[in-house]
Backbone:
């Protein structure tokens, strides 16, 4: 069996590793010229590590990842509440830069005798009942199945003619990936509620590496407290989209990860959802049960989109009344542990 995968992010690499581990031949295409050294997704949930344990990737990730101990909320620079993480399985969360997650997945893929074909772009496909003919920038490939794991702007999805239903949220968000020294509480999320309903979050990635993300156009300028930045690895802007395709499959062609769904970064669920899509699809391809893929994964994607939007609206509200209620809820959660644990589960659980 031969499966072609477009996209070598966490979703595509998970599909490749799992298929190769289960005995399939895999060709993974990536239009980038080489591995990414930038980080987009951050959080690793327990379910993702469970999926990646048989390949050995989970153990490699945990040797590097930061185990989050809690979340600290601020109103501008003033601390409002400290909530715990890791008090049960649902609240456990680890942080690791996406490029390191991808590196460990690619190492595992190489162990199974497969490589990523960098600099090779997916350009189209045709299919019949027996297989898929995949057109690339380097010629044609014959495959049994094609997986589009090529992100929000998926070329595979476009070639399938599927509508990416949903909306773009107003405003421009920003991101910065930095090395910094002396940051307080380096194993905790730091959330800052800014004026005009804006938000900013600082997330630990490694011992001295942090992700700063904000609903304002310049995340570093929006920081309401000092940060001793020694190196800026990446900074940029993006629009938050909340979208999902109606079907994740057409015949022998499938979508997984951001190619099938996208949402705000609140809660850190995006990469984990893609990893779960990929593992489910890989097993279905091996078992010959692909007809149930959409029916299984679409409801899960819709559920995560709802959770993510609920969390974003709670933090990113422009209503003074709602902002005040959110702050009072945070303070109550810090003072009454059962309430705080319930809040954390809603915010970060899968």
Residues:
């Amino acid at each position: 069996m031969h499966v072609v995968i477009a996209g070598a992010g966490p979703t595509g690499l998970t599909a490749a590793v799992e298929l190769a581990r289960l005995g399939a031949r895999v060709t993974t295409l990536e239009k980038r010229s080489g591995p990414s050294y930038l980080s987009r997704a951050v959080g690793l949930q327990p379910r993702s590590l469970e999926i990646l344990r048989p390949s050995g990737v989970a153990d490699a990730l945990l040797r590097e990842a930061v185990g989050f101990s809690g979340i600290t909320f601020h109103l501008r620079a003033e601390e409002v509440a400290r909530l715990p993480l890791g008090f049960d399985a649902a609240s456990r969360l680890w942080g690791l830069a996406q490029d390191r997650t991808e590196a460990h997945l690619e190492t595992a893929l190489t162990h199974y005798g497969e490589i990523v074909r960098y600099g090779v772009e997916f350009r189209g496909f045709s299919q019949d009942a027996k297989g898929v003919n995949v057109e690339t920038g380097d010629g044609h490939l014959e495959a049994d199945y094609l997986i589009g794991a090529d992100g929000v702007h998926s070329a595979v999805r476009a070639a399938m003619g599927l509508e990416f239903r949903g909306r773009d949220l107003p405003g421009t968000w920003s991101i910065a990936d930095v090395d910094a020294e002396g940051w307080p509480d380096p194993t905790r999320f730091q959330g800052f509620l800014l004026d005009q309903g804006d938000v900013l979050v600082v997330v630990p990635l490694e011992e001295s590496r942090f992700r700063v993300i904000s609903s304002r156009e310049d995340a570093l300028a929006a920081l309401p407290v000092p940060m001793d930045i020694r190196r800026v690895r990446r900074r940029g802007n993006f629009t938050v989209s909340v979208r999902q395709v109606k079907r994740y499959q057409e015949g022998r062609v499938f979508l997984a990860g951001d190619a099938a769904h996208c949402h705000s970064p609140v809660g850190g669920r995006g990469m984990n959802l893609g990893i779960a899509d990929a593992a489910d699809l890989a097993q279905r391809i091996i078992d010959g049960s692909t007809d149930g893929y959409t029916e299984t994964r679409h409801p899960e994607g819709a559920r995560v989109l709802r959770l993510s939007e609920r969390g974003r609206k709670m933090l990113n509200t422009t209503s003074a009344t709602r902002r005040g209620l959110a702050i009072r809820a945070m303070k109550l959660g810090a003072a009454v542990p059962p309430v705080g644990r319930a809040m954390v589960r809603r915010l970060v659980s899968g």
